[in-house]
Amino acid sequence: MSQTLAVVGIGMEGRESLTRRALAIVLKAEVLAGGARLLDLFPEVQAERVRIGSHVDEVVGSLASRLGEKRIVMLATGDPNFYGITRVLLRHVPRESLTIVPNVSAMQWAFAKVAEPWEDATFLSVHGRSMERLPELVRGRPKLCLFTDETNSPSAVARALLEAHIDGYRAILCEDLGGPAERITRTTLAALVELKADPVNTLILLAIQDAPEVGATWAPGLPEEAFDHRTPHAGLITKREIRVLSLAALKLTPRSIVWDIGAGSGAVAIEAAKIARDGRVFAVEKNAEDVAIIRGNVTRFKVGNVHILHAKAPAGLETLPDPDAIFIGGSSGAMRAILVEASRRLRPGGRIVVNAITMETLHEAVSVFRDLQFDHEAILVNVARSKPLQGKLSFEALNPVYIVTAWRAGDRELLTHLQN
C-alpha cells in the first residue's frame, strides 16, 4: 500500500481542470479527503470520505497516522503550495511522503481574467491574519494581489490603506471566478470601501503611474532633522553617517530579526525596519521620554514592524525572539551584561554592532568580545560636515565614533561557504 499522501489541486473549472494523471489518482483513492464542495465533484469514487472543515490540523494528523494503510488522496483548491494546505501537511507528514499535483491557483486565474502579467506582482494574504502591517507591505509595490476573508474583506483592505494615506492604486476585484456569480469590477480604493464582495474573491491592486507613495524611494541615512529627538545637548541620535555604516555592518536581510538596544530616538530601528521590511525590529529604551519619541517616529514613518520595549537592558531581552542582528547605541553601564546575553541569543551568522564614543566604552566592548571568543573589528569614524561661513565653504567636525562589529568565531567561514 502507498506510503504517500497525494494532494490534488482542483482548478476553477472543477474536475474538468484535472490532467489524466491527476484524475487517475483521485479515482483510485481509498480515502478521499477535502472540503464538501470538492468531494461532491467525484460522486462515483467509492472511497471513505473525510470532510475537512475548521479542524484542519486534527484531520490532517489523523490522516497522517494512517499512511501505508490505504491510498489517501486529499483534494485542494488551485495550487496547494500557494497559501494552501501544504504548510499544514508538513507539520504532520514528511516531505518525502507527499505527492503534490498542483492546478491553476486563484491568483493565476485572476490575472488571466484581466489579461495582466503577474511575474512582477507581490502576493499577500490577509485571510485569517492581522492587517496591522498591511499598509507598510503595500506601500511602494507597483502590483499586488491579495487573498482576503469575510473580516479582512476587500472593503476593509481599502479602508486600511486609505487611513494610511495610500490611495495611489487602482483596484480590480475578481469575485467567484469560474462560478455562476463571476464578476470583475475595476474601481478605485475609495469606491471599493463601499463594495460588499463575494466571500470567494481575489483582489488585484495596480499602482497609478506617478503616485507619490509608489514612486517614493528611500535610502539609508535620513538626516537627523527627519526624526523627532531630544536636543543634541540633552539627548542623542545616531548621526546619519554613523547610522549608514552601522547598518551596513549589521548585514541585514529583508527577514532579519533586529534588536536596537539604547534606541534613543529610534532612528536606527526605523531605518533597520525599512531594510528588514518582512522581519521585525525591537527598539529597547529605558528612558520614558525617549520611548514616547520612538513611538512618534514609528507612527511618522509608518513602520509597523518596529516593536518598542521600555526596559533597561539586559532586563526584558528574554522576552524577545532570538536576533539576527543587534545594534547597541547605549548600554547605561551594563555593556558586559548586555553583550553576554546578546552573544548567547545571537543566531548563527548574526552580527553585533556597538557604537562607542569614549575609549573606555571601546575597550570594554572589545574586552568582552575577546572573553566571549567572538571575532571582531573596530573602525574609528571622523566626520566633518560642510557649513557656510561668510560666503565661504567651511567644515564642522562631529564627535568621532568607534564602530565595533563582532560575530561568532567561524561564522565568516560559514557565510563564505554558503555564498559560494
TrEMBL record:
Chain ranges of the Tetrapyrrole methylase domain: 4-192
GO biological process: cobalamin biosynthetic process; methylation
Annotated Pfam families: PCMT, TP_methylase
The name this protein goes by in its record: Precorrin-6Y C(5,15)-methyltransferase [decarboxylating]
InterPro entries found in the cross-reference section: 4pyrrol_Mease (IPR000878), 4pyrrol_Methylase_sf (IPR035996), 4pyrrole_Mease_sub1 (IPR014777), 4pyrrole_Mease_sub2 (IPR014776), CbiE (IPR012818), Cbl_synth_CobL (IPR006365), Cbl_synth_MTase_CbiT (IPR014008), Cobalamin_biosynth_MTase (IPR050714)
EC number: 2.1.1.132
CDD domains registered for this protein in UniProt: AdoMet_MTases, Precorrin-6Y-MT
Keywords: Cobalamin biosynthesis, Methyltransferase, S-adenosyl-L-methionine, Transferase
Cited NCBIfam families: CbiE, CbiT
PANTHER family: COBALT-PRECORRIN-6B C(15)-METHYLTRANSFERASE (DECARBOXYLATING), COBALT-PRECORRIN-7 C(5)-METHYLTRANSFERASE
One Gene Ontology MF term: protein methyltransferase activity
SUPFAM superfamilies: S-adenosyl-L-methionine-dependent methyltransferases, Tetrapyrrole methylase
Gene source species: Candidatus Methylomirabilis lanthanidiphila
Annotated gene: cobL
Pathway connected to this protein: Cofactor biosynthesis; adenosylcobalamin biosynthesis
EC category: transferase
